[in-house]
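Sample intake — ABC-type transporter ATP-binding protein EcsA
Collected from: Stieleria marina
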Amino acid sequence: MMIQIDQLTKLYDDHLAVDQLSFELSAGKICGLIGPNGAGKTTTMRCMAGLIPATRGELTVAGCHVSGDSLQLKQRLAYVPDDPPLFDDLTVGQHLEFIGRLYNVDDHRTKANGLLSQFDLLSKINAGATTLSRGMRQKLAICCAYLFDPQVLLLDEPLTGLDPPGIRSLLLSVRKRADAGATVVISSHLLAMIDDVVTHLLVMQRGRLQYFGAAADLRSQFPHAKTLEEAYFAATSNESGLPESAALDQVLEIKNMASDLTEPTLDHLALPRSESLGEASL
């Protein structure tokens, strides 16, 4: 198994952020990590990446014990957080030059140019990081993560700020990485976007595991659910006792996205019932 998480528990003082989470994921799989805000998704990823220590539990990622093999883990894993930090004093090209040298990537400049072209950043190669839009910063961080071909990719809300072509490029690249043997964990509130890419789903709520398994199996547990969103709402509302409308208040629902990874278009947008389109901040 490429990822083995056994009884992961994380406490912040008296707040239980992750509660005895266990799952395994093999090479070449793409796992969608989903749940409402505060479910423990980012904390789980940060523990897996070795950025924060688990309070309890055994975590093995890419053959490394997270608590003890930190150097080897960094060579095999890439974590891209939501709103990734960049070096303000470096250009786009210098970021990739730094990563290429740090990881001793063969022919890193040719590879870097290919990634920048793939994510439509080649024209920004000499631009400073502070001049980039949110979406461009996100794409640059993903290029840096891809450059050294990590065995495990942890992508926390990677679709944030991306335009439709950027979303398409990212999802295609995730599928390509998995086909080459990488294991990918991707968190997103845009469930319809990742529906056609993920092989597995890990659903969390209030720090606890609600479901883990094949994406298709989640729908089979809720036969009335026609979409991933509906199955997700059913899975989370069952534990909480909340009606489906309450679950809708926690997750942005986008339906009828293009399912073949062509350029996405929005046909339906569901907002919290208490907000009008003019009042909602998206």
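Post-analysis note: The domain at 3-85+149-270 is CATH 3.40.50.300 (Rossmann fold).
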